[in-house]
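INFO  loader      accepted 1 record
INFO  loader      residues=128
INFO  predictor   begin
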Amino acid sequence: MPWPPQEGELLPRFDEPVGIEEKLRGYSLVVGHDKGGPKAKGFAVMLGIGLDSVDYLARQIRAGIARTPISLVRLHPSGAVACTVQFQIAGPGRYSHRTASLRTAWVFHTPTARPQMTTAFLRGREHR
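INFO  predictor   done
INFO  writer      dumping tokens
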């Protein structure tokens, strides 16, 4: 596998991501979190996604990174590589008519590492 990943390619080892559920439960969907709170409010208002929807959102993230190319690659002085993958998702249940763009960020600390999710948040406006 060529290293580092390039924009326009699928995320390396996209089928082996780590940290999705942990990041969602401990940060991105926690309304009371000092940094994750605004992200959680966005998920709730735009798509009706809350902590009770972790499994749904994790499935959407896995499906999204399996089909959507990397949109941004950043090389860190530490040697780590950060990648952004952004794709459309719909809300669950009664929010299924709403869609929004989900931005996910991933880090690789070594060329053989599995992608570790560092954040996920909605971008832009909802579509009805």
